[in-house]
Amino acid sequence: MAKIKIxxxxxxxxxxxxxxxxxxxxxxxxxxxxxxxPEALPVDTPSSTVQTKLPDSDLATLTVGxxxxxxxxxxxxxxxxxxxxxAEKYNVEFSEADKSTFSRMDDFGVSxxxxxxxxxxxxxxxxxxxxxxxxxxxxxxxxxxxIYNARLANIEVNDKELQVAIxxxxxxxxxxxxxxxxxxxxQKINSFSLVTxxxxxxx
Length: 203
Description:
The protein has helices at about 15-30, 75-90, 95-105, 115-120, 125, 140-160, 175-185, and strands at about 45-50, 60-65, 70-75, 165-170, 195, 195-200. The chain is α/β, with parallel strands linked by helices.
């Protein structure tokens, strides 16, 4: 007797639910993510195998590159208090709105007299503003004052000593980095971090 062949039905999978989930996830990530703003002074840091992480607070970063020095400071309250101390030192007025904006800014590299113009710019325009760097010559050493007042503000706000990190370009001349290091040592800051890029141990 001949066998009866039963046709197999391959069936079908409804992908509608999976597509819905994929689009929901995509929409969530697009709506919640923020674009990374380019650095005001991009530098190519030297390579190192050290993996020590910089602290998330009580830190000032000095970025050195292209003959310029930019300054950055962690903590909104510390930034505002530092700006107030600098305003008193140089007799410059900043509104409450200026202070609020400055507390959320990234690094900057202008003299205190031109800082208000940078604060009033949009975040995307600050990187195109052609910031000339914070003055640090013998006649007008504003970088020294920024570091000094930032240390005072951090002790006042957080009751901790401010840590300092130098983020230098690998192609920057040694004299430019040395000048910043000498400035720190003049303020009895003999311990500071050097920011480097991670490389493999085989190189």
